[in-house]
Amino acid sequence: MHFETRAIRAGQEPDPTNGAIITPIYATTNFQRQSIDQRDGYAYSRVSNPTRAAAEQCLASLENGKYGLLFASGMAAEVALLGLLRLGDHVVCTRDVYGGTISMWKHLAPQRGISVSYADLRDLNAVEGAIQPNTRMLWLETPTNPLTYVLDVRVLAELGRRRGLLTVIDNTFATPYLQNPLDMGVDIVVHSVTKYLGGHSDILGGALVFNRDDLYEPLWDQQAIGGAVLSPFESWLLLRGMKTLAVRMRAHCENAMAIAQYLAEHPKVERVLYPGLPDHPQHTLAKQQMRGFGGMIAVYLKTDRAGVDRFCRSLRLFNLASSLGGVESLVGYPATMSHEGLTPEERAERGITDNLVRLSIGIEHVEDLMEDLEQGLRRV
Question: What is the number of other CB atoms lying within 10 angstroms of the CB of residue 68?
Fold first, then answer.
């Protein structure tokens, strides 16, 4: 079946008890057992729940994966992956990466005796140089947050396989509609379903999707025993959101391309990073690897921090907010929002300067969005 059909049908057969077309919200903690020896079926919602199972099956299908596990947040899903590592293990992580991921490596990984090195994963020599004898995991994110750099997933997955590494990728920005990393050789895909998969800024959740049978039991343990599971109601909202993922992503991509082109020509803009623009450093790779360029744009304004503040506060349709991927347009300031946990030196090293803003392009009418940006830029 095609993507659009699977988004609406996978894991969502009519309810066998009454024929309901929409998967019910099973807001129950317990399930009646048929005997004291029962081992299959549902028993307790932390361990498994029919609404969550439907959402897990649907998302796994969209990622062309065998297994899907849903968590209470994107960070809960990421932290679950620490359970695959052991005392003394080392991780190589892409340098341009979500600030919450950096916080995990900085604060939680050391508690478990896990170390991390950051490398520019666009440079294979830098990747090879960062790998140590005790390296166990290669952590990718593409397009990256916040600078939208694009990594060569197939090449990095092959390098990881050759070196015996577990390859993980955060696919939140792209979504399974635009790219399927498991098909490119990656071992585990991570999502913040809070973003595009939910799509309406009304849920908090995370996911892991994978094919390897040997990973199912240890990751299921992290979910079920760790207990940070997605609630039945939020699982239901996620199912509803994924039904329209394809049509929403097409609209996000169309709007983002038009706005990126507009901003690239604007005299108040220093630089625009959007994979769909021909001058993006990985534009050719993005065309080969993705089915569209997404809805995220990094913009360097020709101003200082005060000018950026005036710009952000003057916008009417672009709400100043921390998240992304909803139907509404948002503007973010990475230095004090998504990447505020970094030191000024760490931000500078990553190109997160005081004049950088991150735009999450929604699906409003593009002319209205451009008019809002134009009046905001007049205040820069």
Answer: 23
CATH 3.40.640.10 range(s) for the chain read 3-243
Report how far residue 33's alpha carbon sits from residue 40's, in angstroms, rounded to the nearest whole number: 9
- Whether the link from the prior residue into 50 is cis, omega within 30° of 0, is no
d(CA 192, CA 207): 6
Q: Are 302 and 379 in contact (CB under 8 A)?
A: no
Rg value, the chain, Cα: 21
Q: What is the pLDDT of residues 145-194, one digit of tens each?
A: 999 999 999 999 999 999 999 999 999 999 999 999 999 999 999 999 99
Give the distance from CA 262 to its chain's centroid. 26
Q: Which amino acid is located at 302 in the chain?
A: K
* CATH T-level fold of 3-243: Aspartate Aminotransferase; domain 2 (3.40.640)
CATH of 245-377, one of 3.90.1150.10, 3.40.50.2300, 3.90.550.10, 3.90.79.10: 3.90.1150.10
Q: Are strands 67-71 and 135-141 parallel, antiparallel or unpaired?
A: unpaired
Q: What is the pLDDT of residues 253-281, one digit of tens each?
A: 999 999 999 999 999 999 999 999 999 99
CA distance 380 to 371: 15
Within a 10 A sphere around the Cβ of 141, how many other Cβ atoms? 24
Non-local (6+) Cβ contacts of 161 within 8 A are: 167, 185
Residue 289 has φ and ψ, to the nearest 5°, of: -100, -25
Q: Can you tell me whether residue 10 is helix, strand or coil?
A: coil
pTM above 0.85, yes or no: yes
* Integer Cα distance of 197 and 57 in angstroms: 14
Alpha helices in 99-226 (DSSP H): 99-103, 124-130, 153-162, 175-178, 213-224
CA distance 310 to 330: 15
144: its two tokens:
């990256």
Q: Do the bridges between strand 296-301 and strand 269-273 make them parallel or antiparallel, or are there none, so unpaired?
A: antiparallel
Active-site residues, by number, are: 46, 98, 170, 195
Assess contact for 193 and 176: CB atoms under 8 A.
Answer: no
CA distance 323 to 339: 12
Q: Are 205 and 194 in contact (CB under 8 A)?
A: yes
